[in-house]
Amino acid sequence: MTDRHIDPERPQFEAFKALPRDSVIHMLNLVRFKDKATYAEDHPLAGQQLTGAEAYRHYGTDSGPVFQRVGGRVIWRAAMEAMLIGPDGERWDAMFVAEYPNSGAFLEMVTDPVYREAVKHRQAAVETSRLIRCAPNTSQGDTVFG
What we know:
Blueprint: H1 10-18, E1 25-33, H2 52-69, E2 73-78, E3 94-100, H3 103-111, H4 113-125, E4 126-134
Antiparallel strand pairs: 1-3, 1-4, 2-3
Helix pairs in contact: 2-4
């Protein structure tokens, strides 16, 4: 059985909020879609037999204006081809990095009423996901790939 990671747990969200809020952040998104979207019975798209990918497109369409309004932008997107290091059989259907001017912009987005309605599409679409906050590395340190 796949561990489901759809929404942040309270301790994870508190750790996110405790980090510095005044610098650019990157959010690495790894998403695996359900074969069939699972909406709540009272949702207008319940019973439409949408795939997870189709439901996720609704999420992007509905949340996109809020994402852009807070200054978000996608800076990298790719399609997974093969797992070289990692669990055998693990796959990701969507992989991208979203950039926000600061964590306050991200928090503004996820608490916006339009976004909170749009996220129902994401919840219906996603089998499991990873959302990893990253600090853009602008230093030219002594690392191998510096």
